[in-house]
Amino acid sequence: MTTWTILDRAHTALRDTTAALTVADLGRATPCAEWNVTQVLQHAAGDQLAYVSAITGTGGPTENPFTPSGSLTGTPAELVEPSLTASAAAFATLDRAGTTPTPLPHGTLPTATAAGAAALDAAVHAWDVAVAAGRPSPLDDDLAAQLLPVARAIVEPLRQYGVYAAALESHETDGSAAELLRYLGRDPHWTA
């Protein structure tokens, strides 16, 4: 546990989603149109390690998270778990009221925003993987409501790099999870 509840919840979502995968799930299409489940997991693990590296100066990803190979040498859990553990440990060392370097183009951010950004990445990719595998969403309205302010603080500049697609039109009946997903350019009703 990191003392960052938002990050712990997002890590749990990604961890639990990964644990539920079968071999048949790994090649499935995802809401990230160019990537399958394995590639999204590689990206998500690499992103967490990028935060570790920004915070500690060591332990970065071994491959570019934005060009995932799609090849696993072990199980999905063996890929994801070490990155979540390292991320939690790195964030646990930080001063809650301070600032911290990030791998984002934004550079140094308030530590709470940086922890929220790492949580946003983990939670949304947990959703990507879960819906690709036909499983229930691990992104509930409570967690999404906590992630929405972080998304609004960091996402707009990232759209120019293709990290997030253009926001989709929100619907009056959207809960926080659907609102967050649409803001990130994802259809909350996406199916493979």
UniProtKB/TrEMBL annotation:
- Protein's UniProt name: TIGR03086 family metal-binding protein
Source species, domain of life: Bacteria
The region annotated as signal peptide is none
> Species lineage, top-down?
Bacteria, Bacillati, Actinomycetota, Actinomycetes, Micromonosporales
Task: Quote the Pfam families the UniProt record gives.
Answer: MDMPI_N
Ranges for domain Mycothiol-dependent maleylpyruvate isomerase metal-binding come to: 7-130
